[in-house]
Input
Amino acid sequence: MGETHGDRIDGAMITATGLSMHFGGQTLFTGADLQLDRGQRYGIVGANGAGKSTLLRILAGDETPSTGSVTTLRSARLGVLEQDHFQYDDVPIIDVVMMGNPELWAAMEEKERVLAEAEDHFDDVRYGELEDIVLRFDGYGLEARAGKILEGLGIPGEVHRQPLRVLSGGFKLRALLAKTLASDPDLLFLDEPTNHLDILAIQWLEQFLAEFKGCAVVVSHDLRFLDAVCTHILDVDYQRVTSYKGNYTRFVERKEEDRQRMESEIAKRQQEIADHKKFIARFSAKATKARQANSRQKRMEKIVIEELPRSSRRHPGFRFEARRPSGREVLKVEGVSKAFGDKQVLSDVHVAIERGDRAAFIGPNGIGKSTLLTIAMGLLDADTGTARWGHECDIGYFPQDHAEGLGDPQQSVLSCLWDVCPDDGMGGVLARLGAVLFSKDDADKKVENLSGGEGARLLFARLAAKRPTVLVLDEPTNHLDLEGIEALATALQAYDGTLLFVSHDRWFVDALAT
Output
């Protein structure tokens, strides 16, 4: 059964009953019963591939579950974050955002047509109907609201009248996010909304959602964002969907408490069985105790121990160590400037990095963070100035585009890693792959067929094998799930070399930067 709409008596905006989802022979989740209320913000979390985005699409009515039903408040307006920006390329940016409420946008456009035809024939009845729609949705304030949302997401007022195609891919997706937020929805569905946002835009979005009066459902790998925004966490794990009250940090505590309680209950029952067995073995042959032994046997047979399901969450085993110490001075950037056409991104930049520093490069998108790293790596020439590496600096580089760091896209995962540790032997290379969650079957996969998360994990395995004295990482958390991000932060905290990294993940920056 799929989605239905109805009027809720209990105040819930979405009620899901008996949801399950199967793909081929794989079960993502089963038996999910959920109630999502107005004024609450739900974060969907789980391992990559566990079914987070699938659950979001089911709740939004964009996908049909294998079994179960979703009932949505009949009058609720839905706002769903789109990913396809190409259809709007020639539309002015401000218009794209105002199109978020289709009923209002259609009324505003038709009203313009009615006015344009007024000299020949003025349809006052239709004009009155359209005016009612515009007033009902506060249409006269729509452009100002749309402009404010765009500026909050880092798209300046001077480009609002230009077509969407003038923006880069990441900023086009910001415009689609603005379109969703400006639609004045009752139900808001956001899949990875922070992916193309910098720190300032993420903080603005957190504030927007904190003031949002409807019901919001988000999928995100940004731990700080989930903490700041969520009133509830929907955990997709153990082939179940479990609702926890509170933000992400509270959820982690509660889930660990639940697991420990279940393990303790199982241990108690196992001890009961062991005690019964001991008594039976000792006294079953004695006539005076045979009756008691028999009674114990029956009690023991009634004890049911449910096997604890395995979690779909897996933490990769990242481990980095420098092959030797570098010199004290690691990197010296002096007077570096760089422009792309008319756009000056770096101007007279001076940076000094010393051995053991953990330097985070943060700031708005487009300000030149990655440009500075690529100049330092010698992959891009500065217009003026120099970037020099110090003595014994072996650099391990993690580019935003993983393909740059993985070499031949046609080679297998196994050979891609073996290239950088040829002395390890087959067993050693497979062990390194296993540590970063590649199975033996995955070893034959072609590099070009890897997902973003798989590509990132393989690239980190290559870097670990090289044992560099300096790690230069450009947005290293972009394609990792929460478990991967936490494992990476732990490994980098233990790394004995020097670290330079660009990141918009505030939790990750806080965990590492000195």
User: Anything to note?
Assistant: The chain has 17 helices and 17 strands. Confidence is low (pLDDT under 50) at residues 3-10. The first strand starts at residue 3 and ends at 6. Residues 321 and 496 are 6 Å apart (CA to CA).
